[in-house]
């Protein structure tokens, strides 16, 4: 017996401090694969973000908000699996840049599966030219005056150089 396919909502979560071209590459791929994608901007007590959650949401909206009809951008400050359940999402999108990411992602997927077994983790790899980019590296290079224009949207570049108006 064939089951009717239910529209799939996927969540691509992260701190996105700031959102990079690697993130937007994965976001584009996710929007092509799933009926609805939520870019979920997390607060993270373990990190000291350069930009507030509201600023990161604004940057994400400026960078990607009008590029896909099936995308919404939201902030959250709960367990990701609880947020996914509340939003009706059944898929968590995660990016893998290198083999070194795998161990952490494996642990995370196992924990998420224990918390909410109905939610699947799906892994996407960015284009090779973005495989080494991380928000942390972009922030560090930008803070030391390096050129990160190839790795971020012009709005993000401006925010890195000039700050953001609240």
UniProtKB/TrEMBL annotation:
This is Phosphopantetheine adenylyltransferase. One of its GO terms (cellular component) is cytoplasm. Keywords: ATP-binding, Coenzyme A biosynthesis, Cytoplasm, Magnesium, Nucleotide-binding, Nucleotidyltransferase, Transferase. Belongs to the bacterial CoaD family. GO terms for biological process: coenzyme A biosynthetic process. Its cofactor is Mg(2+). Homohexamer. Substrate binds at residues 15, 47, 80, 94. It comes from Leucothrix arctica. InterPro entries: Cyt_trans-like, PPAT, Rossmann-like_a/b/a_fold. NCBIfam families: coaD_prev_kdtB, cyt_tran_rel. SUPFAM superfamilies: Nucleotidylyl transferase. It is found in: Cytoplasm. Pathway: Cofactor biosynthesis; coenzyme A biosynthesis; CoA from (R)-pantothenate: step 4/5. Reversibly transfers an adenylyl group from ATP to 4'-phosphopantetheine, yielding dephospho-CoA (dPCoA) and pyrophosphate.
């Amino acid at each position: 017996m064939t089951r009717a396919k239910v529209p799939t909502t996927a969540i691509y979560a992260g701190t996105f401090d700031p959102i990079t071209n690697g993130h937007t590459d994965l976001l584009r791929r996710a929007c092509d694969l799933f009926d609805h994608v939520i870019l979920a901007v997390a607060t993270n007590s373990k990190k000291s973000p350069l930009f507030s959650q509201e600023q990161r949401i604004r940057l994400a909206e400026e960078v990607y908000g009008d590029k896909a009809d099936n995308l919404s951008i939201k902030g959250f400050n709960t367990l990701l699996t609880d947020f996914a359940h509340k939003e009706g999402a059944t898929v968590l999108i995660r990016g893998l840049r290198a083999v070194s990411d795998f161990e952490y992602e494996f642990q995370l997927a196992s924990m998420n599966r224990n918390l909410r077994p109905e939610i699947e983790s799906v892994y996407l790899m960015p284009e090779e030219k973005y495989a080494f980019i991380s928000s942390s590296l972009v922030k560090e290079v930008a803070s030391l005056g390096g050129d990160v224009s190839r790795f971020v949207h012009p709005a993000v570049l401006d925010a890195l150089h000039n700050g953001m108006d609240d």
